[in-house]
Amino acid sequence: MGYKEQIDINRLPVHIAIIMDGNGRWAKNQGKFRVFGHESGVLSVKDIVEGCVDIGIKYLTVYAFSAENWNRPIDEVNALMELLISTINNEAETLNKNNVRLNAIGDLKSLPQKCIDDLANVMEITSKNTKCTLTLALSYSAKWEIIEAAKKLITQVQSQEINLEDINEEVFAAQLTTHHIPDPELMIRTSGEHRVSNFLLWQIAYTELYFTETLWPDFRREDLFEAIVDFQKRERRFGKISEQLN
Ligand code: FPP
Known about the structure:
By secondary structure, the protein is α/β, with parallel strands linked by helices. It has a single domain, classed as Decaprenyl diphosphate synthase-like (Undecaprenyl pyrophosphate synthetase, 3-Layer(aba) Sandwich).
């Protein structure tokens, strides 16, 4: 029996987040340039989005470019930006066909203007889609996001829009870039690294973490389904004891 058949469709994670890692190593293993790994990684993104649509995952968030990735060699940064632009434009039609809405989080204003414009365009033309929301984390840093949220709240307190005493988890989360998305139940990282690398730090407080040795360009929907089967075997206690759960 394949992994897809083992999935309990009534207990799917609503939101899956993925740290797509290992593109560079995958390319190097084949004696190719790193950018070839990123190009191949796009094929994995496409397959995973289709896999999510296939089984009914409502939200998928992928770490496509971290704030720290700006420190990579300029040629690689430029290649990633060009790949991003060509991918969102080439895939707009398929996203619509699959009823997928495109969304983006991160310090988007730091992206090249063409990237900002094309992202806004594809987000607009897919905005009515309801089956799945694909969020690209771009120039994203969770610490940056939390600081931005804190600044917004401080400004609101200073202007007496809200009272300091009224700030709670819900009020704080409403200021995050993910305010319209539920927290992920499952976070996957490929390539054997066991880190969360400044991704969705607030949102993963109770997220199940899944690590696989598979490099991102080799990761396909069957690997996603395997991760979901593993997730469904876990007992999520949220601080309670087993006996309290049922
Ligand atoms: C990590 O691999 C991957 C990235 C920094 C970029 C991820 C980008 C893509 C999959 C392609 C673009 C995506 C979209 C949605 C258009 P790495 O380069 O850190 O690999 P390494 O650790 O082996 O060096």
